[in-house]
From TrEMBL:
This is Uncharacterized protein YlxW (UPF0749 family). Belongs to the UPF0749 family. Signal peptide: none annotated. Keywords: Coiled coil, Membrane, Transmembrane, Transmembrane helix. Residues 286-309 have a biased composition (Low complexity). Residues 272-309 are annotated as: Disordered. It comes from the Bacteria. It comes from Catenuloplanes atrovinosus. Residues 92-119 form a coiled coil. One of its GO terms (cellular component) is plasma membrane. The chain crosses the membrane at residues 54-71.
Length: 309
């Protein structure tokens, strides 16, 4: 026996080719042995075969029992869920009817207040008040103007899942841009889907919905405005109009500006009246007081008779 020379390289150790072996013998040796033993000894008989069949039967019965229990519980709970849903739907309907009744009552009271006010005020004061109400959005107005209509773009359908993907949707800030552009072009009154805008109005998003003064609005959105004769031409030249024309060409959104005659814009809901005081009756100035123009009011004197009379 001779020792290896220190300069002699070690022998290479080749690892077995597992991929080739897997394709050559795809069946695990244990399965092959079990099949050979079964071929030699035949199927199990006696207590071993009976126990195997009994175990399989017991498993099937147990699984079936679990499915039956789950189905019975689901069916038993369905009426309770249906009753709860029906109760919620009825509650929503009742609240909606109550809200509509309150709105009608508020409108009737508002009309009564306006009638009493018209009967009390006279002349220039009443006219000035009507002008202020129209400017602040608290009175219904009529006139010529424009209607800007915007709507969501087309939806792409996923060929695999069948779901729809919105390419472009109208957002709350889009309605804000349109309203601000109309104000800047000289609009005197604006509504969005019938909701009148005032100096305290809000346009914001709540989930998938757009709220105008806490009232949900849905597309297509119509922004109506009353203003000067050139309102349409002025709005067409704004950045907001140019942006929506681009969205129409790229994403299929709907954008239309129309000139309208005799528009009627409803009044906004009146502000909450917290305190009201009756105007005091004017009182004559006191004796010897100074009038607003700086002159003194003389104190009236009563003539007296001579002493001794």
């Amino acid at each position: 026996m001779t020792a290896d020379h220190p300069d002699t390289p070690p022998k290479r150790q080749y690892a077995p080719d597992f991929l080739t072996e897997l394709f050559r013998n795809p069946l695990d040796p244990g399965y092959a042995d079990a099949a050979a033993r079964r071929a030699e000894q035949g199927p199990r008989t006696g207590w071993r075969g009976a126990s195997a069949r009994g175990f399989a039967l017991t498993t099937l019965v147990l699984v079936g029992f679990l499915f039956a229990v789950a189905y019975r519980q689901t069916v038993a709970a369905e009426p309770a869920r249906g009753k709860a849903r029906a109760a919620l739907v009825e509650q929503i309907r009742t609240r909606q009817e109550a809200t509509e009744d309150l709105e009608q009552r508020a409108a009737a009271l508002r009309a009564e207040v306006n009638a009493l006010r018209e009967a009390t005020l006279e002349g220039d004061t009443a006219e000035r008040l009507r002008e202020l109400e129209a400017a602040t959005g608290l009175a219904e107005v009529e006139g010529d103007g424009v209607v800007v209509t915007v709507a969501d773009g087309n939806s792409d359908v996923n060929a695999v899942t069948g779901g729809r993907k919105d390419v472009s949707k109208v957002l709350d800030r889009d309605l804000q841009d349109i309203a601000n552009a109309l104000w800047s072009c000289g609009a005197e009154a604006i509504t969005i889907n019938g909701e009148r805008l005032t100096s305290t109005s809000t346009i914001r998003a709540a989930g998938e919905a757009i709220l105008v003064d806490f009232q949900p609005v849905t597309g297509p959105y119509e922004v109506a405005a009353i203003g000067p004769d050139d309102l349409k031409d002025e709005f067409e030249r704004t950045r907001s109009a140019a942006l929506f024309r681009k969205l129409v060409s790229e994403y299929g959104m709907r954008f239309q500006v129309e000139q309208r005659d005799d528009l009627r814009l409803a009044a906004a809901a009146g502000g909450d009246l917290e305190h009201a005081y009756r105007s005091p009756e004017p009182t004559p100035p006191a004796s010897g007081s100074t009038a607003p123009d700086g002159t003194s009011t003389p104190t009236p004197t009563t003539p007296t008779s001579p002493e001794g009379d």
